[in-house]
Amino acid sequence: FHSILLQNSDIQAKEFAEMLVSADWFSFSFGCLGNFCTANMKQRIYLMLSSLVDVLLEQKTASHIRDALHCLPSDPQDLLFLLG
To answer: What PANTHER family does this protein map onto (predicted)?
Structure first.
């Protein structure tokens, strides 16, 4: 998914990002993060999230997610608490 977002044209990437969001990608990915709390899984989920933010918001605001990657929790419930 990540490579598709990064390599396709802007219009195709935005359509794909909207499809992922509407297909409950967040529920699936954070479920994986909750079940497989490894550093590699955490990195992949948050990098994908940052790419989705970049494509959907059409800004480079996702760099903040990438910069804070090492500080973000592996447990989705902890993340919800931080966002809450």
So the answer is: PROTEIN PRD1 (PTHR36379), PUTATIVE RECOMBINATION INITIATION DEFECT 1-RELATED (PTHR36379:SF1)
**Alpha carbons 67 and 24: distance in angstroms, whole number:** 25
Q: What's the pTM?
A: 0.67
CA distance 66 to 36: 20
Asked if 38 and 54 touch (Cβ cutoff 8 Å), the reply is no
Task: Compute CA distances 64 → 25, 30, 84, whole Å.
Answer: 21, 19, 18
Instruction: Retrieve residue 46's tokens.
Output: 């948050």
36-76: pLDDT as tens digits: 777 888 888 888 888 888 877 876 777 888 888 888 887 77
